[in-house]
Every structure is written in C-alpha cells, then in structure tokens.
Amino acid sequence: MTSRGGGTPWRALTALTAIIAAVHMMLLSASPGVVRIEDPLRNTPLVMRRIEASPPLAPPPVATAVPQPQHVEPAPRKPAENAAPDTAAAPAAVSPMRAPSAVPPHIATPAPREPSAAAAAPPVAPAPSFTIPGSMRLHYKVLAHSRGSDVQAQAELLWRHDGRRYEARMEVALPLLTPRVQRSTGFITPEGLAPTRFSDKSRSEEATHFERGPSRIVFSSNRPPADLLPGAQDRLSVLLQLGALIAGEPARFIAGTHIPIQTAGTRDAEVWQFTVQGEEDLQLPGGNLRAIKLFRLARHDYDQAVELWLAPGMDYAPVRLRLTQANADWLDQQWSGTDR
Q: Per-residue pLDDT tens for 136-184?
C-alpha cells in the first residue's frame, strides 16, 4: 500500500515490522535475570485469591461478641431515672463478656503486688553527703590536769585545702615542754576526707601511712599493719570528718545517733563509735556558741574518752575538745578565736 501524499512506503513498514520482531526475539532469549522478573507476575493470581478468601470488612470476633451500646434498654423516660440506670447498666452488660483473667483498660497493675515486691527488697541506705569547710586557722585555750597539777597552754588548728588536697595541723604549746604537733594530709573525695599520712611529733616523730592499693594502714613504729576500712580517718582528720559529715545533712544526726569511724593513731587503728548527745550552749574564751556534742566512750583500760563539740554557726568546726584518760587526767581545749 502506498500514499500519494508522501505516506510511508510499504518497504518501510516491512522494515519496521522486522525490527519489532527482532526485539521480541531478543527478549525471549534474554539472560536468566529477565526470567526472574517474569516469575512474580505469574504468582500474582495466587496472591489475589488469598486476599479475596478473607472478607476485609468482617469485624473481629471479640467485637461481634460484645453487645453494642444501643442494645441496652433505657429506663423509663423520666430524666432523673434515665441517668442512673444508664451508668449502672453499661458495666453490667460488658463485664460478663470479658475473660476471667482480663483486666479492664482503666485499671493498672494490681496494687498488692508492687508493695510486696518492694517489701521483699532490702532497704538501701542513702549515701552520706559531706560539706567541707573553707580554709581557716582556729585558736584555742587549753586547760589540763595532769598528775594532780593544773596546766594552761595554747593550741592552734590550721585547716586548709584547695578542693582536692587538704592539710590539717594541730600544735599544742605546753609551758617548759616541746610543742606537740599532729599533722594529717590527704585528699578530698565524695566520701569526705581520705588521709594518706598522719604524723605525731613531740621529741621524736611517728607516722602512719594509709595505703589505698593494698587497703592497709602501715605504722612506722613497726606495729603490725591494720586493714584499711572504708571511711578510715586518723586522730586529727576524724575531728574534721565528723563536722563535714553532719554539715552535709544535719537533720539525720539527732540525739542518740551512732557514727562509727575507723580511727588510726601511730600504733593502732580501731573503730571509734561516736554518739550524738544533742545541742548545748557553750561559754568559751572566744564567745558564746551553740554546739552539737558528740561523745566517744573509752572501750578498754588505758583508753581515753573523747568529748567533741561542733558549732553549726562556724561551719561545724571543732570548738571544744575534751580528752579524759583512764587515770582521770584530762585536757580541755576551748576555742578562743578564728583567722580566715
């Protein structure tokens, strides 16, 4: 077939038909990858049958079993009587349809189980908090009774730290005697003071080392080492540790509260138990103060009783310290002034 107006000649149509046939032949003889694409198309009728087999609009079985709200018959037409039967009838109509173990959606997990689980767990004591006082120098007037004689002296407590390391130094100057100096150095940690070395010097010096690695306390006097317990202190740092502990949460330390702390000297390390005895008004050389008194009872012969007063108005600094020996000798150290 030809066209007078310049239509496509029959030879061109024949060539175009041949090209299309060649393309179809190429597709039929294509690589396996093309064959894999045809396979899902053959499975399409199977998928359609599965979808048609289950009615898409059918309600769930549970929904068909539960009566609709419209099925509940209202009470007589009186307005006052209508409201009460409606609210009472709805739960009565629905609740019998629930399984015995089902929990209504507005009710949480049964309350009795939670208290019983909490009661079975052991109580966890809150971690103590500490408030470390700023650097200061405290001055004291010392009264002592020894061997039937009364003695007066002066003492000084130097306390300083940089927020990481601390130093405490106590010097007691007795007349006609070499001053006695105690010194404690260590770190400030979340558990309060962590001493590393304590020394006591009069004519000669003895020292105690707190070795954190092997957890032991070593004495320069060749005494056997002692186990290092958590929160251990020396005989000087314990005065400041107690103040920092009570300052951290004063409400916890009411009268009768016991505070056990391992306390090391230069020859031994024992657990000292301090008991809070309450607040007292003190008349001291430096002025009148209200302070919290703690007491440590002597545990055995040749031990000493310790009475300590901490002043809340002075960052719980030790404002009075009284030591009583087994032979009735005593030393009373009373605050007389402060240098910041």
A: 999 999 999 988 889 999 999 999 999 999 999 999 998 878 899 999 9
* Predicted TM-score (pTM) above 0.90: no
Q: Is residue 95 part of a domain?
A: no
Structural domain containing residue 266: 137-339
CB 137 within 8 A of CB 146: no
If you compute the radius of gyration of the chain from its CA atoms, what whole number of angstroms results? Answer: 45
pLDDT of residue 119: 52
Is 326 contained in some domain? yes
**Residue ranges in the chain modelled with pLDDT below 50:** 1-8, 20-57, 60-112, 115, 117-118
**177 lies in the same domain as 282:** yes
Specify if 104 maps to a domain.
Answer: no
- Tell me if 208 is assigned to some domain: yes
How many domains does one find in the chain?
A: 2
| Mean pLDDT score of the chain | 77
* CATH number of the structural domain spanning residue 173: 2.50.20
Contact 133, 243 (CB under 8 A): yes
Task: Tell me: do 16 and 165 sit in the same domain.
Answer: no
Long-range contacts of 183-192 (CB under 8 A, 24+ apart): 183/236, 184/234, 184/236, 184/237, 186/210, 186/237, 188/132, 188/161, 188/163, 188/164, 190/130, 191/128, 191/130, 191/230, 191/231, 192/128, 192/130, 192/132, 192/231, 192/241, 192/244, 192/245
